[in-house]
Amino acid sequence: MRNLTDIKSRIKGVSDTRQITSAMETISVAKMHKAHQRYEANKQYFDKIRAVIKDIITRTKDVTHRYIAEKRGGRAVFIVIASDKGLAGGYNHNVLNKAWELMSEYSERYIFTVGQVAREFFEHKKAVVDVEFTHATRDPTIRDAAEIADSIINLYDQGLMDEVYIVYTEPETGAAAVARSMKLLPLSKETVIGGIEDAPYKNEDYYREIYYDPSPEAVLNELVPQYLIGVIYSALIQSVAAEHSSRMAAMSSASRNATELLEKLRLEYNRARQESVTNELIEIVTSSFGTENRTATER
Predict the structure, then answer these.
(1) Helix-strand-coil percent breakdown of the chain, rounded to 5?
(2) What is the rounded distance in angstroms from the CA atom of residue 56 to the CA atom of residue 34?
(3) H or E, element range at 31
(4) Could you list the mean pLDDT of each consecutive 10-residue stretch along the chain, which spans 299 residues?
(5) CB atoms within 10 A of CB 67
(6) What is the pLDDT of residue 111?
(7) Which is nearest to 223 in space by CA: 49, 43, 69, 64?
(8) Do 212 and 222 contact (CB within 8 A), yes or no?
(9) φ and ψ at 220, to 5 degrees?
(10) Quick one: pLDDT at residue 122?
(11) Which residues on adjacent β-strands are paired with residue 78?
């Protein structure tokens, strides 16, 4: 039989843990909704920039630009977004493993990490983290996204890299969060245009409808950095939403497990208490019966 004091101590510990997991679940719900609201508030502006870039590429004949031209050097930069802490189910595991798998295809790679867990993961893999952006996953801002975008644009403009990828997590309604990767530079139809190949884009009259001053290339110089800021900000916000969604599910599961364990412990406590009371009664009866026998013998 387990000691009643031990069981009571165990019940208190599990009960305290359940209070913590329930509080963390509530906090994650609030932060997840906040992240979604911030994403939607900025989505319209960046969608407009994306639409203009799409028009330049699809409606301008023979447009050339360093942000569009494919390079063959095989030097790739990977921006990997994870979190600053765990307790989020498989959130960090999924996105980091996807990034590591993608990196294995490149002989020369540069790693930019967002989140402490990402840095620790690559250090464990004996991989050098070239740039670390701290605190960007706690409360992402446009300034955070601009800082990351400026870093990769400067390196890309200097010819120090050939491709830029971002690896993040996308929350999905009614399903677990999914790790995603996107090619940021050079721009491609798959990421910017979405693979549109409609007939109007092949009509020369269609190209004559839009003119850019001073030139499409000059407009791209201004818009591409803004586009990258929008994409990176979107990835940061979606990753935060996915993190809190995963943590909410993990804490909800932990709270349910704690509740089930408390029920078992309380049942075990009641049984142990009943057994203790029964043993005490048996001892009292036995002691009383022994006293009566001694008294009868003496008589």
Answers:
(1) 65, 10, 25
(2) 34
(3) helix 4-59
(4) 76 84 79 74 72 72 75 86 80 91 88 92 92 83 91 90 91 71 81 52 52 76 86 88 78 80 84 79 71 57
(5) 20
(6) 94
(7) 49
(8) no
(9) -65, -35
(10) 94
(11) 111, 165
Which candidate, 94, 84, 92, 238, places its Cα nearest to that of 172? 238
Q: pTM (2 decimals)? A: 0.74
Task: Give the pLDDT confidence score for residue 196 in this predicted structure.
Answer: 44
Q: Which residue has the tokens 């993990």?
A: 250
Instruction: Check: CB of residue 133 under 8 Å from CB of residue 80.
Output: no
Distance CA 231, CA 100 (A): 21
Label residue 245 exposed, middle or buried (CB < 10 Å: 0-12, 13-18, 19+).
buried
Cα dist. 22→16, 194, 223, 231, 252 in Å?
Answer: 10, 41, 45, 33, 7
Q: What is the DSSP string of 87-111?
A: -STTHHHHHHHHHHHHHTT-SEEEE
The two tokens of residue 25 are 């679940």
Of the candidates 236, 205, 189, 246, the one whose C-alpha atom is nearest the C-alpha of residue 50 is 189
CA–CA gap between residue 262 and residue 256 (Å, rounded): 10
- DSSP assignment string, 194-214: -S---GGGG-HHHHTT---SS
The confidence score (pLDDT) of residue 289 equals 62
